[in-house]
Design goal:
The chain is an alpha/beta fold. Helix 14 (289-296) crosses helix 15.
Amino acid sequence: MAKSKVAPVRTRLTIPKLELSGAVLLTRLINHVKSIFGQKMNIQKCFAWTDSQIVLAWLQASVHVLEVFVANRVCQIQQSVVTLDWRHVPGEFNPADCASRGCEAPVILDHPLWWAPGWLYQPENCWPRTKTELVEPLPGLRVISLVVQESIENLDPLLARFSSLDKLIGVTAWIRRFIYNSRNPTIKNMSNVLSPDERNESLLFWVRYIQAKHFETVFATLKGQGKLKGSVARLNPFIDDKGLLRVGGRLRHSELPYNHKHPLLLPNRTPLGDLIITDRHEKNAHVGLNTLLAIIHQQFWILSARRAIRNVIFKCIPCYRLKASLTQPQMGDLPPDRITAARPFSGVGTDFAGPFSIKVSSLRNAKIVKGYLCVFVCLVTKSVHLEVVSSLSTEAFIACLSRFVSRRGLPNLIRSDCGTNFKGSERYLGEVYKFLTENQLPIESSLSRRGIKWKFSPAGYPSWGGIFEAVVKVAKTHIRRIIGESVLTYEELATVFCNIESVLNSRPLCPISSDPNDLEALTPGHFLIGAPLNALPEYPFVDTPINRLSRFQLLQQLSQSFWKRFNIEYLHLLQQRVRWIDKTDPPKVGDLVLIKEPNMPPLSWRRGRIIKLFPGADGTPRVAEVRVGESVLKRAVACLSRLPVA
């Protein structure tokens, strides 16, 4: 009886693999014949012949060292019902060659080798002798882990070069195709596109590499039928037919796909694991931890996966920018101009508020123009001076400053912000921002000629000038309560501002004393009574007995007692930090940061790199220069959000 089968067209098989498929076909044919005759024929011994020495070597080798294709067919032959004695027959004595090489019908009718091979009629000792030497090198062997172990040091740099899983798999697939084409010049793969099978085999190549590197003990234990210990033992791992370590688990009888039931096992915190997490995270719209963990478990099981996923998500720039956190340094020490006793308004903080609607006259249809509130705050006593500014021009501001100096004296220092906090409120304070940015140099030059030093706070950080920002907030609260929606004239608005100024200067600087003899609290107004604008230096009369003082000296002593109360009652209240208590990790030169923009979402914040830091007296940097494109910006550290990448 004979049987033949055409070689597959789609799957390109080598000649030895086709010979092995023929041996499988022969085994099935013999079992079929045996099942037909059953007990009618007493077959004592059965011989099977092949002219392929490679097939005989495969049948003698262990199944575990063979490739999947070869191992499956060798198992089918070894599981034959009929015990077969496999032997080698030379090609010129093989009757199967008559059919496989083609033979015409008239020839096959009288072909002696096909119908009655002469050597089979001879005794067994005259049959062709089977060659016992093995074929070297034997094809079809599985790549054992020792080969991978020898090249671990060479593959680590290649794995670390890529930050994208797709690029790593693509490069690996092209390298593997080049090796395949070099070894098989007759059946080259010249396609310009990588097939899904090639990409999948490249991914499995790296999985096999990582497993062989980190699970060497697990492989040795499973092959030696030993007992696993630790967290890996709970997963009941096994080695599949491709030599990969998979999770056994308890879902073997479920209807899930094979990869879902038995995901590939990977160690924690490996470059390949981070690439897989990043790839799944980006391809699934930057999902959260739990969803990403479920997606990864469909193909891979990473040990301590939650910790590895958190580490990758924290470094994801789009996710970080969506909820960027600012680094607030510890609250700094107060500057000398805030805690040194000096006459009121010798050091001033100034700011703008508004605009407010002003009627040109009290007529019914009078023209309405814009006006602004200019706030002057004494940096020591917190005394307040409010002025109305008719327009945002250099001349109007200098005139406002002249009125302030004429009534309060010439200050030595003026602190203000750069006006960038107004930029976010374009609807209301865009004119203020434009005025401060365009007229900064003329105003500073005019003040310099008068001997006034003007210091600017870092841009975009109103909390730096908290003392005058707080006064602006309180003043606007009173203005809204008094004016409401009314439109006042210039004189009426100036009168309202003076009333609000008196209220603000009557606020206690410290809690009211519990002493019943102390009838009044220390307020900024105490420092504004009885002292001329150009007062000469006074002799200290605080410790002089009252009976030795004249009436004028007694008034001076009362004025000086306010400063004594200032040092005893108020100054110690500034000792403790009410906010920003903890010390934080300061930024460093070269850090990549996001610059906080007022009234803009974090995804729209500009990105820059710190090029210079300005540490304070305590060594903590609170101001930095940041390069953004071709420009350099000076910003407070509290307005910068450091990105979690180098």
